[in-house]
Amino acid sequence: MTLQGWTLILVFTALTVALAKPVGAYLFALYEGCRTPLHRLFGPVERGFYRLGGIDPDKEQGWRSYAVHMLLFQLVLTLFTYAVLRLQAVLPLNPRGLPGIGSDGAMNTAISFATNTNWQWYSGEAAMTNLSQMLGLAIHNFLSAATGIAIAFALFRGFARREAATIGNFWADVTRVTLYLLLPACVVYALFLVASGVPQALTSSIDVTTLEGVRQTIVMGPIASQEAIKMLGTNGGGFLNANSAHPFENPTALTNLVQMLSIFAIGSGLTYCFGKAVGNTRQGWAILSAMMILFLAGVSVTYCQEAAGNPVLHQLGVAGGNMEGKEVRFGIAASALFSVVTTAASCGAVNAMHDSFTALGGMIPLFNMQLGEIIVGGVGAGVYGFLLFALLAVFIAGLMVGRTPEYVGKKIEAREVKLAVLAIAVLPLCILGFTALSAVLPAGLAGPLNKGPHGFTEILYAFASGAGNNGSAFAGLTAGTPFYNGLLSVAMWIGRFFMIVPALAIAGSLAAKRYTPETAGSFPTTGPLWIGLLVGIILIVGGLTFLPSLALGPIADHLAMISGQLF
Predict the structure, then answer these.
(1) String of DSSP letters for 185-241
(2) pLDDT tens, residue by residue, 143-168
(3) DSSP 8-class letter at 58
(4) 160: helix, strand or coil
């Protein structure tokens, strides 16, 4: 560990907190439907979309209608992408003559990008044409991110409104977020990446002669534009197989820092937006504080473990930290920080191979995903997932003080608690159930590269990544098989929409309630006691649920390593 490494972590955390208010204020303007400076440019485009779709943006929807429209939209987009991938061999922008994607692989990829997971069983430069990357995949990078923010807005309205029957208009929310936030931000972001050396071209590949006189084909394409929304929208699917470890996607230490900040920017901003929506910004700061405590604890463990290195190698006289699977231009601290950032958010982009981390260093990214990636989390998904835990925490606090639990002026009753528990229980049922199935069936056991607890961790990580809509891989699992493509598709769909629908139901239930003024007997939900309770509930629920699986995987792997056994 070095002073430079800790400085990087603290500076990144400070910048994340500093971005929360300005980003959150802009998000609140979109949440309210207010005019922004960009309305002069994109206002006619927005109105044109509404006329084309026959949509009245002022006509609001109840939670059921909001959910149905969202699900139908995602289903149509998934089928569209499936068709593009299957037919890419006969579609334009395919100068290398790449074949269409097989049925199970196309289904997996279409669902992966529709659910903001961006799990990649394939190598992007070897399997996807430029058209598939731009039309089939990048469109989801924008719209899945916009959908997550729209769901967060709907839940915010549930807390903020009083005796209302509606929670907003899905089409208006998605359109405004896309036009006034994601598109303009990504144009500026992509230009920064191009200036930093990231390629942006329609050329599929170029042939060069190396210094050794060997002819080499270098894959090119519209990388910068996809990289921008990949990070800002917490998508994570790389244009190239090495993802952000590739110099074409992440060439410098500055781009590495900006990419990490962009992963957290919208998620942290949404906490401030929530505080503005409910009329008390301290509520938002309390949520962000709890998130940052969990984040700093995780990154500290990962950095310490990676800096300590492998004791087996130390016994052989190899000193230093663990640099296996890491880029020299980033080093241990930036790689450890990136791994925790990308799994605390549901991004999944990687600048190092997590399979090469030490056992406990790799356990933290895994545990982040098992918690549902609520530590900042995906755009929208993180904050509405965190609010589900807040409802559970305030319910438990209410039981302890003998009062009906209240949160931001709304009584939390049996219906809301049941829906929150249902949404929270989806991930462990999915992750642990599918992992158990894969750990006993021959088709599942054929996937791991390693044996023993490390191989088990590879399986566990895959389903945590899929169900948590993260998309990062442990890099040791052969997942491009019908078995894993099919099972991970189910995990991704369940992990996304079986949490969204209960969250929307909670929004509808809360919106219909009266406002309950805070009294001297109300449990405070803005101070250190509340922040500590939130952190404790999250760790207890996650620990009790996933500790046995972690004991079989990374913890057993660590104990074996310190006794001299490697897998």
Answers:
(1) HHHHHHHHHHHHT----S--EEEEE-TTS-EEEEE-SSHHHHHHHHHHTT----SST
(2) 999 999 999 999 999 999 999 999 99
(3) T
(4) helix
Instruction: Tell the burial category of 414 from Cβ atoms under 10 Å away from its Cβ (0-12, 13-18, 19+).
Output: exposed
How far is CA 543 from each of CA 346, 396, 427, 459, rounded to the nearest angstrom? 20, 17, 14, 19
CA distance 520 to 223: 56
Give the per-residue pLDDT at 363. 95
Q: In whole angstroms, what is the distance from residue 302 CA to residue 291 CA?
A: 17
Q: How many Å is the Cα radius of gyration of the chain?
A: 23
Q: Do 344 and 295 form a contact (C-beta atoms < 8 A)?
A: yes
The tokens describing 516, both together, are: 């309950």
**pTM (2 d.p.):** 0.94
Instruction: Name the phi and psi angles at 159, rounded to 5.
Output: -75, -35
Select from 410, 367, 501 the least CA-distant residue to 159: 410
Q: What is the residue whose two structure tokens read 């769909």? A: 493
Residues listed for the chain: 567
Q: Given phi > 0 = left and psi -120 to 50 = alpha, else beta, which region is 237?
A: beta
Looking at residue 166, its amino acid is: T
Q: Which residues share a beta bridge with 410?
A: 407
The per-residue pLDDT for range 444-497, each reduced to its tens digit, is 999 998 889 999 999 999 999 999 999 998 878 888 899 999 999 999 999 999
Query: What is the DSSP pairing of strand 406-407 with strand 410-411?
Result: antiparallel
